[in-house]
Amino acid sequence: LRTHDLPRSELTMYRWIRDTRYALGALRRSPGLVLTVVLTFGLGIGANIAIFSVVNGVLLTPLGFEDSSRVVAIWGASLESSRRPLPAGDFEDIRQRADLLEVTGHWSDSASLTGEHDPVEVTVGWVDVNYFDVLRISALHGRLLAAHDEQSLLLGHEIWRRLYGGDPGIVGQSVLLAGVSFEVVGILPPAPNPNVPSISGDMGAQEVWRLMPTGWYEGSDDRELGWLRLNARLRDDVTIEQARQQLDQIAAAARPPENGDDRPRYWYEVTPALDALVGAVRPTLVALSGAVGFVLLIAALNVAQLLLTRGRGRAAELAVRSALGAGRSDLVRQLVIEAAVLTTIGGVAGALIGGAGVRALLAIAPANLPRLDSISLNTHVALFALAVTALTALVAGIVPALASTRSPGTVLRAQSSTPGRRFRRMSAALVICEVAMSLVLLTGAGLLARSFMGLMAEQPGFEPEQLLTLSITAAGDTGPDRPNPFTPIRRELETIPGVIAVGGTNRLPLGGGLFTGNYATETMGEEAEDKPAVDFRWVTPGFFRAMGTRLVTGRLLVDEDGEDKILVDRQLAEDAWPGEDPLGRQLWTGNLGRNGEWSEVIGVVEPMKHTSVAAGAVPTVFFHAISPPSSRVYFAVRTQGAPQALSAAVLEHVERAAPGATVSQVRTMQALVADANAPWRFALGLMAIFAGVAMSITVVGLYGVVAYSVAQRTQEFGIRVALGASAPSVVRLVLGHTMLTVATGTILGAFGAAALSGLIANLLHNVGGTDPATYAAVVSFMILAGLVGAWRPTRRALRVSPRVALGEK
């Protein structure tokens, strides 16, 4: 083939094809190198594909609503607390005055649903009439809720399929919800999800939808009881900052600053719906993305070192090709193509590993990780994999290619020592970078481990052992004018052999859900403007004994107590009456008290963690649940032995005490605590895996550098031994250079870890990003890993025979 007659474009193509064929032939002769590189790249690229699939599905994929970037969540916030449900008066203000937004409100509850099937507990979304219009959702069958549809229901798509087999004929028929007849007027589509982000950072789980009575909020001036969740859509050409400014004006008009203080007392948090949904997990996913990025970079550096070693071994070949007329660009292209072929094979392996990794992540991901259904291998993930593979090929190929072709002619002229020193310096630099990045990952894993151990040692305010929990929904409606259906259930459960105590509440600790408001003491008076924030819970007698919550002072509730008797936790008692006896004091709790009257404190209990093990306890008032606030009550049953053993007996006695009641979420409190800790356990587990992979790759790379250095200095070691050098001196010579490399990388890594500690700051609990104990342990481990990587080459140096070494000269 007369290549000089080819057009320039065809000549370039010919050269690339020729070099690719040559690279394939050369790699066939090095199966060990190919296997090592493919496995190294496969792990690095596969881990990045798996994590990016999660990041893409959770953080980057828009919500299913039409123009979802314009949908926002609105919460209340003050100096004492943030992200609070809104009282009806605030909703009314925003509805009337916020003309930059289409605003809607909703509330959730549960009830028993009965049709041509057994009673089933369902979650009920109470919504404003424009709720689905704001989200741009249409009915799949039938129609949406309209004004005055007080006795109409919408069915969610999943429960429609599950209970009614997907039969559109259910539209127009009647069902019983909480014992009351409702007409099914429509079926919602499977997507977009009509649930919007909740305070706990999920999409809720409403299955049935009904109209919220306008009397709950129209004309209301209530500023105390927070129970409404608000969502809104920005009108055309309105920015979120403009909406915030308008809402700030509305909040300031309702609660103006006092005493010349310019700071707002109360404001509204306006958050894009996607951020409201994924904000809590964003730091975890960003940290894990950084971790897998480091793993891939370490893998690329390790492969670069392998190729650099291979290039050094091929110096004579490259020098001959140079002498025959090959330019440096030809040699660089040849070596880069070899690296690209290796990386491409590694990328294919990485895609397979990444697919398996996605399935594994979905299997181990905590159930409260939002948007799990959005995680998949799709076009965006494929493009990311291609980009990562190309970038990795560039990083792993270009450095050794340039280094190996810098002066190939020296091999023909003389065995100069300069290229050897240059090679050792470059290899050491690569290992220093690997050590530094591995230390960053190990430090992150160590900090998360310390944080998780701290979480496990946290006292949640109750004893989760030997505690069974369950949700019970009454067959009919509940209210102040109806008998409490849960009292006979509690008394029936107390008769089960092996049961120590039984109590009910509207929300279990760590179970999510909030009723928020404000309180006032006698000193402050109910007209005080700056009332402190507080959480509300309703409990039955026996609840604190069942939960194992310690009574600090006073007494617990008994059946004879009226609604004017309350308990408070120790945190509220210390805030409201510092250094004083809280027993017998009067507390005003707004509309949740006895129709706005004052309530008497009869006891103080230890604070309980309501929302998260990591979050601090929120001051809480516990009301006597004479009239439960909803048709669902959560029961806690303390047992003498294993709580699971009594599950069947508990269900049997519930059916006996309240025929038609539905029971769900039967689980131990230990399982609930484990679920609450799941996000930290998930992050720690993955970070530990990534750090372990990175550490293994680094140790292998360190071993390669030391082994090559020993092989290059065989003659020197032989001469030293012949002249009387002792074994310890040879060991010091080898290990000294090795540990200097490790120490340099460790110092750089420590600074890097301190600089990047902010990436995981939100994941840490009672541990600083520069925790000395963690850094000391990680540095010690890294030094030990350096010794392990250098041990075998050092022993090889000790076995060098002076006769053989001198004979090689």
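^ that was protein a. below is b, sequence first then the tokens
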Amino acid sequence: MSIARDLRYAARGLRRDRVFTLVVLVTLAVGIGISTAVFSVVRGVILKPLPYLEPDRIVTIWSTNPLRGWSRGGVSRQDADDWSRDTHSLAALATYVPQQANVASGDTPARIEYALVTPDLFAVLGVKVRYGRPFGPADNEPGRGTAVILSHAFWRQLTGGDPAIVGRPISLDGRPVTVIGVLETGVAFPSPTTALWAPFGTTPDATGPRQARWVQAIGRLRAGVGLAQAQAEFDAVGKRLAATYPETNRDTGILLEPELHAETGGARAALLLLWGAAALLLIVVVANVTNLLLARARGREREIALRASLGAGGASLLRQSLTESLLLAGGGALLGVLLSAAALTLLSRISVDLPRLAEVRIDGWVLVYTVAVALAIGCAFGLRPAWRALRVDPAEILRRGGRGIRGAGDGLRRALVVAQVAVTVVVLVGAGLLFRSFDRLTAIDPGFATAGRVTLRLAPDWVTYPERDRAAALWNDLIGRIGAIGGVERVGAVNRMPLTGNWWTTEYAVDGKVLERGREPTANFRVVVGPYFETMEIPLLEGRLLDQRDGVGAGLSTVISRALARREWPGRSPLGARINFAPEMKAAPMYTVVGVVDDIRSGSLAEAPTPVAYVSLAQARYGHFGDWGMDVVVRTADPRVALDAVRREVHSLAPNLPVFAVKPLSDLLREDLSQRRFTLLLLGIFGTVAALLAAVGLYGLMTVTVTQRRSELALRLALGADSRSLLWDVVARGAGLAMRGTAIGLLVAAGLSRAVASMLYEVRPLDPMTYGVVAVVILAIALASAWAPAHRASRTEPMEALNGD
């Protein structure tokens, strides 16, 4: 009954102070809502367990090679077979490689993602086949590889949910395969859009030499085996393989990493930073609300004194004060959850490169977190006013007519404002460093033009076009037809677009240079069709570009990037030099360097240009895997009309060839920076909110201070003091608090600067400009916040103030 009575009394009191209640609820809703939204993302991406059996026992296995900069590289199938045979810490080990294929869906060709796998993959994941059977050893034998297992989502899309699909054939890249099973729902490996799985159906040696590390490996730890124990065993096996195969494994190590970390590693640092920033924002919120409650408590001292005089005990006053604080926190939490739900809805519509983004939602654990946060901050901002209620001296308060004791609680309020300013500085410094870094990245020349260009991908399959010459003829025909479309100015194609990763990296050897086997340098290998360089406006620096002279039967030619030329032929021209790609292959041909083009950013804008070698499709001996897929770049003034015409031309020439991955070329830049943009946007919002709350807190404190000093200021004015000096006296007090908070904040930010160091580009964590600008901005906000109360104080009428007091 007492709790219900306290709740009713608190609700009545808050209804009476509607403006105060609204301000506090909005403040709490913003702080709790931001914290809840960020935690929802953190939980969905990096805290929520993967949807597999005992997911903490699943590990990704990487190859490492410090000499070549591999910290987490692919593995070879031969190495994986040796690991499976020579280690005992894993209950199962599997390899896989993501793929894409063309399938027919009604009259419209479509493109799907699938994975080539070894049969133990589903045992590693601990998932079951809902209909049919899993893969068996026979499915992976050479010459087989015609069985497939469908994902639950693709099964429903393909058949509407008909179990009779098991045993029936479907067409995959023009090749008939048989559906042997349908997986249970919820399997999203290696990506949420994986439609089916197929066995390799070939021996490891048939898919490349031991140094061809083009697949991924995943394993399940045996029960009772820890990660460190398994890592030690794999280290020992890695050393044995290095001794047995020195040419391919001498510098290669092995790294085991929890699968959850492997899937989310690129996003972990940014999300943990945002979570920390959200926690700092909550500190600002608590400080702000505490100041508001202290100011309100001072105005209610007469009421509290009367209740104490009438017999209300200290425990009753304490309980009542905390009840009011927790009621406010609960209301703020409710509004915060609604705000966070709206924020997550907005996030789902924003293109941001976050793994497991589809799993981000407000679930039971997020609500538990929100309730815990609300209880914690409710106690935090309610404790001090409640404690003051216990220390009320009724006689003193009533003797002074309810005006309270001047200066009571002022020290705490000043400390809270200093803390608000300090925390705001920390958040703004982090946002400023990321902004400076982002600004540097956006100023980078990627090495190609994007305006007025669209890109799409076509992937003729190897069944329909089994020979490279036929594929080259098809591509030349396609590029010619697209180039003849009205409004198309230029068109070219490449096997892999810039800014999409250092895909298809190959070893090479320059004619006349003797290199130690196993330590050959590497370069990205790009296959082009048509005037690709002219379409992308990649500048020619020396020699000529690839053209019709580099066709079937002609001498093998290559164009190289400036980075490759500088590495191998520093200070001299590489024209006429000969270079051998994939020297480990028997009878690997020599290509003659006929031109040098400027560098592009292959992996990302933040990565230095990688050496690249370009060859024509007609003369390429490799550079494709699984199909003859190429990215087409079209330069046109009207992309919509041009794309409609491109689809018609493709359909007329190859009716079963889908057109997919259609987007403006500028999207490559946007996608590359999406995660940084997302982090910067949220930190900017946090910093802005924190700065506003700090300004409100300082404004409130200066208003209370001026009110308390009203008689003193009036007396000084009556004795002849200059109003301007009084104004600057008040402003200086506010500026002093802001300066102390700024100094503390800058020191804390400098100490925490390592948290953002890995996310910076050409900006030092202790960047003087960022720290200086933040300090100036905070001091300007402080001066503006203190000016209004100071201005009112300087215009006080002395006699009116003295009579009122």
